Amino acid sequence: MLMHDYIQKLVRGGLQELYPEVSLLDFSVEYPEDFSHGDFATNAAMVHARALGKNPREIAEALAQKIQSAKGEKIERVEIAGPGFINFYLSRSVLANGVAEVLEHGDRYGANDALKGKRVVVEYTDPNPFKAFHIGHLMTNCIGESLSRIVEFSGADTRRINYQGDVGLHVAKAVWGMLVARDAGELVQVRTQGVSEKAMFLGKAYAYGAGMYEDDEAVKKEIQEINKKIFARSDADITALYDEGRAWSLEYFETIYKRLGTKFDHYFFESEVASLGKQLVETGIEKNIFERSDGAVVFRGEKYPGLHTRVFINSDGLPTYEAKELGLAVTKYEKCPYDMALVVTANEVADYFKVVLKALGELRPDLAEKIIHVPHGVLRLKSGKMSSRTGDVVTAEKLLEDVRAALGGKMAESDIPEAEREDLLDMIAVGAVKYSIIRQSVGKDIIFDFETSLSFEGDSGPYLQYTHARACSILRKAGEAGIKDTLEAPSDTTKNLERILMRFSDAVRAAGEARDPHYIATYLYVLAQEFNAFYAHERIVDSGDEAPYRVALTRAVSIVLKNGLDLLGIRAPERM
């Protein structure tokens, strides 16, 4: 049992014994910001004061006395503070035992069984072939990959899902741009180029087609016809170009996934779920869930609080994104049955998703209740918002390369061999970008700042990676000096670091419950700060009789840092 749960159980038991006539209310057990106020604190006395008609301080005194008599060996003492807070101080043996648990469980330390026996699918990234893989997709990938790892660490049988829009008007616009390039003789050269260049060409073809669609009525009609032909695969020439461009996009996306450390279990495409989505909508018409309107089929969202009407089949008889989303929900469940499905997207589609889930709830309530939308904020550079339509986008690859180049300057004088340094630079660049995204609460917008994100001294990915590398360096020196770990004779100088180590499990659990990785990121920064402060003021390898325990403590810190970074999808280097 986590110490948090142990203390909560003690408080609850004390309240029930003292005041059996009152139904217990929810109360918090939290970490005080200042270690001098104990390891845990509860507001239970203040929460119950009104229901009991008593002064909170009076309740706190009675409750503290009851807990003191039942606390056992895990708690050293209990004190009352302020208007009625109760502070708990853990025993020295419990703190030292926390280090032992880290060393015992290793890369499984911090794991829990909150989702044991559950099947969870996490859908994220979802880039559209024929369009740029931009920093918005990068943000979705970072959050989705971290959530996947957190639910796995919580015991779930987890599947990573990627849903991609390989049909639709955006594809037709890109294919029209490819036709123009082919007629101009440009496509021959593109076919000889690398995967990144091909992806860049497709982005430009889409931007050109999107612009002409808005500006030229004749082109608009051509693209609309191409859209129908792609959907029906009725034109051999159009189909061949479409298949070629689609393959280029998917091959390019895989290079990005590999770089980011993501491996999907299943890929779903709009082309595969469109027909089913249309069938589901047509079935819903018969059940009065959908209705015909001006040649299209719509869902009247206004009938429900906070929703709006959306088109599910357009006037050309083609299923829209909304209808395809219905088909996806059913297809996902058929291919990998789930108890819970997390869908990670930008919050720009939050209102859209509410309507889709409501419509799905009318058709398949058994599935709708299993789906949880996780909307996140928008990632921007200081230059402002992007637009795929105009071609004014920052690709994920460009951002990663710019970050990598900036880091190269910082590490120019490193003594790490060149071959190893190349992989290290990419590891740190990806870590810098991922951490800058994950350190914020999921719903917040983020402006990527190079100086802050690449700092080796502040709240950044490189700082955490450097702290892990520092711990590993200390362990190598200890090994060379023949110092072996021991858990005997801990001193008071290590207590704060021990306290923070014990909080990792709670950070993991909080991240899982809130579906927000930033709890882990915040925890890791606090741990890194405390370890670096300890390193700056205390000797470790050459600390005499205390060295074996301090080395064991350093090993525990390295384990927790590595476990936490892994849950964020960030690799932990052993040298920097």
Describe it for me?
Strands 7-6-5-11-12 form a 5-stranded parallel beta sheet, sandwiched between helices. A 4-stranded antiparallel beta sheet has the order 1-2-4-3. It has 22 helices and 14 strands. The protein folds into 3 domains: 3-90, Arginyl tRNA synthetase N-terminal domain (Gyrase A, domain 2); 124-380, Rossmann fold; 396-567, Orthogonal Bundle (Isoleucyl-tRNA Synthetase, Domain 1). The chain has 576 residues and is α/β, with parallel strands linked by helices. It has helices at 3-18, 44-52, 56-70, 92-105, 135-153, 169-183, 187-190, 195-215, 217-232, 236-260, 270-286, 321-335, 350-363, 365-368, 396-410, 418-438, 450-453, 461-480, 495-502, 504-514, 518-537, 547-567, and strands at residues 29-30, 40-42, 75-81, 85-90, 119-123, 157-164, 266-269, 291-293, 296-299, 310-313, 340-346, 371-376, 379-380, 446-447. It holds the Pfam family DALR_1. Keywords: Aminoacyl-tRNA synthetase, ATP-binding, Cytoplasm, Ligase, Nucleotide-binding, Protein biosynthesis. Belongs to the class-I aminoacyl-tRNA synthetase family. InterPro entries: Arg-tRNA-ligase (IPR001278), Arg-tRNA-synth_N (IPR005148), Arg-tRNA-synth_N_sf (IPR036695), ArgRS_core (IPR035684), DALR_anticod-bd (IPR008909), Rossmann-like_a/b/a_fold (IPR014729), tRNAsynth_Ia_anticodon-bd (IPR009080). Monomer.
